[in-house]
Structure formats: structure tokens, C-alpha cells
Amino acid sequence: MTKDKKLTPEELVKSFKNEFKSNIKDAIIKKRAAGSKKNETPSIWMKVDKSVFKDVVKHLCEIQFPHLSIASGNDLGRNIELIYHFTVNYGSRMKEINFNISVDLPKSKPEIDTICDLIPGALITEREKMEMLGVKIIGIPDDKRCFLSDDIPKGVYPWRRDETGADKLYKNLHGGKK
Amino acid sequence: MNQEATTKTSYQIPIGPIHPALKEPVHFEFEISGERIVDVSVKLGHVHRGIEWASRKRNPIQILYLAERICGICSYCHPAAFALAVETAADIQIPERAEYLRVIQGELERITSHILWAGVAAHEIGFDTVLYLTWQIRERALDLTEYLTGNRVTKGIMTIGGIRRDITKDMLPRVKKDLQYFKDNFEKLCHIFLDDKTVGMRSQGAGILTKKDALKLCAVGPTARASGVKKDVRVDTSYFAYGDLNLKYITPDDLTGNVNGDVYDRIIQRLLEIDQSIDLIEQCIDKMPSGDIVAEPDIQKLLNQLKKVKGEGVGRHEAPRGEVIHYVKFDGKSDSPYTWKVRAPTYNNILPWIPMLIGEQIADIPIVAASTDPCMSCTNRVAIVSDGRKYELTKEQLHKLSVEKTRRLMK
């Protein structure tokens, strides 16, 4: 494991902005209070340019080895947005920060580098993004389907909202187009 | 047997999609050399029901009940994480009393789930009497759940902005009585699992997950904590009323002084967590403030409010099996969320199976696989492909292998 520095959300964002300058497109810190004592949990939402994504994750691993909860994805029409939900600073009482790093990929060429070499636990979620959103993960150690069954035709991506979506496969289900 | 088969050094056993010891279909391919497992690969998705797609035609209140049906044992955790995500996206403030009630329900579910697991683990190694004993205790927990929520399994207790049922003063004696019952039986359970020589022989040193692997593979919940990773959403962050309560990380060294990351440690881990949950419910009962239990009781008003929301939110809750996380995005144009992504704890505990199982014996598969408490549904048989011919090993036979190993050790 790498160094184990515990930074505040502001310091984290600053560190990334210093390192990647204008490639960090947007960084918002939100805090949400809960309970009677109103203790807060911070979340960082950071949008980065596709070209530096791998280096951003590498930089994060150098600050502190993060926990990758999941990567989720949105079909935004022209782009596909991937959001990697990391958490850092776990292991001490109420110090954890939700760190969401999002990246836009053009639908014409939805490709991104794998982060499995940095965080081996990312394998399943990366495979899921490949089959569900049709994102090409470059350098992934195992590119087999993970959740979809083999009889679902190639080129159908259930989370997409365009013609490559799975709507036509749902015709026999309640609510699907007949 | 032909010449080729006798000289072959390893062979493959596909296990699943219908699978022993697990509660949900999953497909394993084991590379076996003699009795030892040398490699494992996992295929998932046999019960992928397209729940996230189904949410595209439902409003957030309807999705709560859909989320409840993701899993029968975690029927509180999924709506809880979903509600947290929606409340974050829409910036809804929850009444303080509701925050405490949410903790009580969450911890009661943890007690039910961990006791269920203790019974399954005992069954896997051939102690069916312990299965009956633990499930008798679990029955009391289910009765208490029914008393507090009106249902035993799908509780329908969570709502966006609060909780649906209060725990009134006249209900407290019953709750306290049942907590006392759990405490009395907790000692008994500890004695059975931790002082029994045979349980120790089957579980100590079996299915080891090192701390390094647990971190690298992003393991969550008791599986990660039993390997010494201090990671627990309840302690790490402040949500519900957990930020007000007195709680700390539990790892197996609290009891034994060191962490081995084996099946035995995972048993200790869950037992200690049952004790912690009882304590948390008691703290909540003492500290619970009075007041409303829901921010907006009129569902139509709430839905109108949510319709206008544009934004995204993440909800994380510590389910009995570990961190559950839901991501919700609203586009402000439709009744239903634009995106809803669910991630259950077992998702992250799949990859850690591989280092756990490598080097173990076939008879250890049930207990090692069950030791992460995978949240999957029940099964029947295993096919063994050997020398190009196909054998079928039923769940009963595999279970028998496991029981026989225990009996051998007892001699």
C-alpha cells in the first residue's frame, strides 16, 4: 500500500487542481448533516477530462489507497458519463469523504483506460460498464460478459437510451413495446 | 479410465449457476488438482432481473418497494440507501426522531441476518442442531420485526424523508424484553461457536483473506473487517443517527488479540457485531428525541417536489453484509429518476473469493463460500466435468462431503 495521508476535502480538491490545472473541469464539495448533533459527511463531485483520468486515479492512489465502491454511468445523449464512486479517509470516526470522479466519453468513441492495474477490485464494475453501456475499457484483463447472458445479441447495451438500448428485447415484458 | 485421463494433473469442476451453499445462482469454475483448488473463475448475472430498467417507469415512492424486493434478507438496506440518495439529491431534511428509528430498524435487520448466517454456517459444516438453535433465536428477532413494522420480511417501513411507523412508549417493554433475550442467548452462541473444538478445526486457517487483498479487491463489510480492515460506513460517516451514537470499529482482534482473516475470524466478527447491534438499539431507545417521523407526510406533495429536482445523489448504508451504495440522478423532467444504480455488498465480495478458495479442498467450498455471507438465492446441484464425461454432484452430495470432513476431524 502507498502512503496514508488524511486530507480534508478542500485540500484534496486543491491537490488535484494544482496537479491537473484546467483538466479538472469542475469540483464541488457538498456537506450533508445528519442526526441530532448534525455531524457532517462531505462529498466531492469532480469532473475530469478523459485524457487525464488514469493519472487522476494514480494521483489519488499516491495520496491514499482509495476504496472503489462502484462506477455508475449515464447515457447523456451525445456523451456517456462514467462516475467512479471512491471513498477516502476510512478507518477513523466520521472522517470519510465520498469522492466521486466523473468523466465524459463521446458516444462516437467511448473508450477509457482500465484502472485494474491500480485497483484490482475494479474488474467487475469495469466489465459491467463494458456490457451495459458499450464503453470500451482499454487494457482490461478480462473482457468477458459478467452479468448479461450469452443470448443477448451483441451491440445491445441495456443502460443506453438510444437505438442501441435494450427496449426491443423487452417486448414480451409488462411495460415493453409490443 | 484411459491413459490420458490418468496422467492429467488437474481437472475442472464447474459449480453453478445453481450452486451449493449459496443462496443465489452464481457460476464457479474450479481448476482442481487432486483435492486442492488451484484456480477459480466466477460468472455472475443469472438472476439479473433488470430492476434498474424497471425503475425507468416508476416514481421514487414506487421504487422504494421495488428496491425492497432486490433481496429478501436486506429488505431494509436497499430502500434505506435509495432514500438516502434521493434525500441527498433533493436536499430533504429528516426529522431527528426518524433518524433514530431508522437506526433501530437497520440494527434489528443486522441481528436477524447475522443469526441467520450463523445457522447456515453451522449447517454447512454439519451441525444441524446449531442451525435449529440459531434460527429459533432468529424467530424472536423476526417476531420483533413484525411487531415494529407489521411485516416479517419485506418490511415496507422506509419512506423518503423519514420512516413510516413510530415506536411508541407502550411498545418499549416488549422491545427491551426481546433485547434481553438476545443478550442471554448471545453468550450461548459465543460458547457454541468459539469454544467448540470441531468448529475451530474446520474454520481456523480456512479461506484466508489477507488485509492487503481485502483492500486491493475493495472488500466490504464483515468480510473486510474480519481481515483487519477498519471500514464500516456507520463509523466512517455520519448518516441516520449513527453520528450521535457511541460506536467503534469491530475487528476480530478485539476478542482474540490477532487477525488471521480466516473463516473463524469471520464467525467471531459477526458474533461481535450482533452484540454491537443490541447495544446500538439500546442507545437509540435512550437517546431518541420526540417529534415527527416524516418530513412530508403527503406523498403527492413529496412526488411533486421530487419531480422538479435536478441533480444527483449517492446513498451509502452499512448493510449486514457491508456497504450498499445507490446512485440516483434526476433530470427534472420526468416522474422517475433518470438513472438509478444499485450496488449490493456481495458485488464487491465476489473477487475476494478467489484468494480465499485457492489452495482449499473441495469439501471446504461450502463453508468458505458461505463465510462471506453471499446474498444470493438457493440451489441444488453441481456438475463435475472430468475426462470429458459429465458427473452431477447434487447439493446433498457436496454437503455430505463437507459433513464427512467434519466427522473425520472429530475422530
How does this model look, in words?
The complex is a heterodimer of chains A (178) and B (411). With 178 residues, chain A is of the alpha/beta class. Chain A has a single domain, classed as Beta Polymerase, domain 2, CATH 3.30.460. Chain A has three helices and seven strands; from the N terminus they run αββαββββαβ. In chain A, the strands form two sheets. In chain A, strands 1-2-5-4-3 form a five-stranded mixed sheet, covered by helices on one side. In chain A, strands 6-7 form a two-stranded parallel ribbon. The mean pLDDT of chain A is 88. Chain B is an alpha+beta fold. In chain B, β2 and β3 form a beta hairpin. Helix content of chain B is 48%, strand content 15%. Chain B has two domains: 108 residues, Enolase-like, domain 1, CATH 3.30.390; 293 residues, Orthogonal Bundle (Cytochrome-c3 Hydrogenase, chain B), CATH 1.10.645.10. Chain B is built from 18 helices and ten strands. Chain B is globular and about 65 Å long. Chain B has a three-stranded antiparallel sheet with strand order 1-2-3, with no helix packed on it. At the A-B interface, β1, β2, β3, β4 and α3 of A face α2, α9, α11, β6 and β7 of B.
The first-level CATH class of the largest domain in chain B is given as Mainly Alpha
Radius of gyration of chain B: 22 Å
Instruction: Look at the structure and give the mean pLDDT of chain A.
Output: 88
Count of the domains of chain A: 1
Summary tags:
heterodimer; A: 178 residues; alpha/beta; Beta Polymerase, domain 2; B: alpha+beta; Enolase-like, domain 1; Cytochrome-c3 Hydrogenase, chain B; 2 domains; three-stranded antiparallel sheet; 10 strands
Quick take:
In chain A, 19% of the residues lie in helices and 31% in strands. By secondary structure, chain A is of the alpha/beta class. Chain A has one domain: Beta Polymerase, domain 2, CATH 3.30.460.80.
Please describe the topology of this protein.
The complex is a heterodimer of chains A (178) and B (411).
Chain A: H1 9-20, E1 24-34, E2 39-48, H2 53-63, E3 67-75, E4 79-88, E5 97-106, E6 111-113, H3 123-133, E7 136-138
Chain B: H1 3-7, E1 11-15, E2 27-33, E3 36-43, H2 51-54, H3 60-68, H4 77-90, H5 96-124, H6 128-149, E4 158-159, E5 162-163, H7 172-194, H8 197-203, H9 211-216, H10 221-225, H11 233-236, H12 253-256, H13 263-287, H14 299-307, E6 310-319, E7 322-331, E8 339-343, H15 345-348, H16 353-357, H17 365-370, E9 381-386, E10 389-394, H18 395-410
Antiparallel strand pairs in B: 1-2, 2-3, 4-5, 6-7, 7-8, 9-10
